[in-house]
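Customer escalation, tier 2.

The customer says the design service returned an amino acid string that "doesn't look like it belongs to this structure." They asked us to rerun it and document both sides in this ticket. The original structure tokens are below, unchanged.
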């Protein structure tokens, strides 16, 4: 594992390990692609040029945003993803790690909060001193994921494509796009600017 400590060989430490998250975000946002990246890492503070933590804001086509964070110094991370939509929220809790286990939580809010002018506004969450509340009908569904070996699933899926035909879920182009994103994230943090 010594190659992970050598910036010339790995091209990013915490940034490289962010790829699980970046792959998932790109999959969920497909077919939109990232058009701009703004990022911070602690690479400048390490004499050997290693990054131990990274925070990146991704601007996708259609002006949809995603935020990704990774830290090798956080002992209590849960490798999760949260997607905020117009009618609810999807939370994958503990689902972005090598030994994938965890749960998927789906929050849906139905209803409206009345008319503003001629426009019907959807129900929305609001915060009071007692916590977060929702107008309208609210439902929460939780699905537990028993776990799987991602590498075994990846190889079996690839073998199935070879044997039966079709396209793999993730292509070489997906790997290339993720590598380009990692490079843009490092460049943004080092040059302290937004990268197209």
């Amino acid at each position: 594992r010594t190659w992970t400590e050598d910036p010339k060989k790995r091209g990013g430490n915490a940034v490289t390990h962010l790829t699980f998250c970046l792959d998932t975000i790109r999959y969920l946002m497909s077919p939109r692609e990232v058009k701009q990246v703004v990022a911070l890492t602690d690479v400048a503070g390490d004499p050997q040029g290693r990054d131990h933590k990274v925070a990146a804001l991704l601007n996708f086509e259609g002006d949809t945003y995603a935020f990704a964070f990774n830290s090798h110094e956080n002992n209590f991370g849960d490798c999760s993803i949260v997607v905020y939509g117009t009618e609810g929220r999807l939370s994958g809790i503990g689902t972005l790690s090598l030994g994938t286990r965890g749960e998927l939580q789906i929050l849906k809010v139905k209803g409206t909060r009345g008319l503003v002018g001629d426009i019907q506004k959807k129900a929305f969450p609001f915060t009071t001193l007692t916590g977060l509340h929702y107008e309208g009908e609210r439902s929460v569904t939780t699905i537990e994921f028993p776990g799987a070996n991602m590498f075994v699933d990846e190889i079996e899926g690839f073998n199935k494509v070879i044997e039966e035909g079709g396209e793999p879920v993730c292509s070489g182009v997906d790997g290339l796009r993720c590598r380009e994103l990692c490079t843009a994230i490092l460049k943004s943090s080092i040059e302290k600017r937004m990268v197209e």
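Tier 2 assessment: The sequence is consistent with the input. The longest helix spans residues 172-191. The mean pLDDT is 82. Sent an explanation to the customer and offered a walkthrough call.
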